[in-house]
Write a structure and sequence with these properties.
Length: 131
């Protein structure tokens, strides 16, 4: 299956699984997707994830988080897209809902949240916001 925007595919799979109240979702593996999922886990938006070593391609099994049958992720918004990349310096990284959510940034130091990027004073490509 050819996917033109794998990051948007990741978000759509997670959103669809949350809407259908699934406990877990399987996503094709890539290093960037794994880094994004790790940041979601560190910020308590998902329970856990594991890498499934299958042929012909690895996959990531993401265990979704619910609190009293309400998903931990109430919204995801893609900022950059393949046709329109958006970059920001550390001072201009947008805050998500007055720091209620997070903005993920692809930097030279790897995938960071907006707070981490401001702390080490590094900017980069704005990937998405989650709340």
């Amino acid at each position: 299956m050819l996917i033109s925007d794998p990051i948007s595919d990741l978000f759509i799979r997670i959103k669809n699984a949350l809407l259908s109240e699934k406990e877990e979702v399987v996503i094709p593996h890539s290093k960037m997707k794994e880094a994004i999922i790790l940041k979601l886990k560190e910020n308590n938006y998902i329970l856990d994830y594991e890498i499934i070593e299958e042929k012909p391609q690895k996959q990531v099994l993401v265990k979704l988080k619910y609190t009293d049958s309400v998903p931990a992720i109430s919204g995801i918004k893609r900022i950059s897209s393949p046709g329109r990349r958006l970059y920001a310096s550390s001072k201009n990284i947008p805050r998500t809902l007055n720091n209620y959510g997070i903005t993920l940034v692809s930097t030279s130091k790897g995938i960071l949240t907006d707070k981490e990027a401001r702390k080490i004073n590094v900017g980069g490509e704005l990937i998405f916001q989650v709340w």
